[in-house]
Amino acid sequence: MGTPTGNAIDIVSLTKRYGRTVGVEDLGISVAEGEVFGFLGPNGAGKTTTMRCLVGLLRPTEGSVRVLGRDPVTEHLSLAPYLGYLPGELRLYPELTGRETLRLLATLQGAPAPRQEELCARLELTGADLDRTVREYSRGMKQKLGLVQALQHEPELVVLDEPTEGLDPLVQETFYALLAELGRSGRTVLLSSHVLPEVQRTCRRVAIVRAGRLVTTATVAALREARARKVRLTFADGLGRRPLGAADHWSPDWHGDQAVLMIPPDRTVAALRELLALPVRDVTVEEAGLDEAFLDLYRSTAPAQEPPR
Ligand SMILES: Nc1ncnc2c1ncn2[C@@H]1O[C@H](COP(=O)(O)OP(=O)(O)OP(=O)(O)O)[C@@H](O)[C@H]1O
Description:
Elements: E1 7-18, E2 21-32, E3 36-40, H1 47-54, E4 62-67, H2 76-79, E5 83-86, H3 98-109, H4 116-122, H5 127-131, H6 139-151, E6 157-161, H7 169-184, E7 188-193, H8 196-202, E8 205-210, E9 213-219, H9 220-225, E10 229-235, E11 253-255, E12 258-263, H10 268-275, E13 280-287, H11 290-299
Parallel strand pairs: 3-7, 3-8, 5-6, 6-7
Antiparallel strand pairs: 1-2, 1-4, 8-9, 10-12, 10-13, 11-12
Bound molecules: adenosine-5'-triphosphate (ATP).
Adenosine-5'-triphosphate binds at residues 18, 21, 23, 41, 43-49, 88.
């Protein structure tokens, strides 16, 4: 379904308030068709609120949301066949069997469910499981059912709110494979998560929100590159802690003859030039991990600038 902007999602100045509580404020995010896009932020940041606006379950207080070129609230029915949604808290009818649940949700999606059987098999929901009532399901089984319904009708856009919650590691691997296939087949995916390696592995670009506001939108690679370098120097003269000249500005952490410094990327080369004039026996330079990058963004109080791409 080609859209005029080429974007599957266009969120412009979105504000959603719940009475006096702010869910999100002045949020702007665009996701291109065919992107697998990560949505990150601490608890209460506004991820679920945004996703519920995208699937038409919440009406924006201000601003606009377009999904596959349509308004998800007023064009909900015509959008349903093209949209897959896994809510963070899946509410199912406990008295229905798994099979009846999938059938009901396919009816609401207004589309055939050509992938239902294959997805159940891959996520290890057996025929016997599908004949049991949802009341008897474990948390992981409910989550698998949620994933099957979100993907069973081959939607153009899939919105997944913390999709791996409750899944065991083997099923998580199957989920990652499914996600990679969706990306290769040109589908668009918006995925919220607290699991940073999950995002690093599956998404090229991410948006980070905090307290209802956008902190940054960036590629995973740029977030990493913008982070400090971890420089580890080993001296061999048994002197231990010593002055490091200008590099003392980076507050070295000393362990015997070893100093560890976190240096911003644009200062690393100059700092190394000076440091390597000292009697250094060994040096290693590492990129700070993505998890360190995210923790930093989570913690900092001022909204960060978009790092260079
Ligand atoms: N139905 C509601 N009524 C009132 N306030 C709400 C409601 N839903 C969410 N909020 C508030 O909106 C803010 C954003 O919540 P939201 O659930 O969107 O965050 P989130 O990023 O999905 O968090 P989490 O990672 O914990 O799931 C929070 O302050 C929350 O308390």
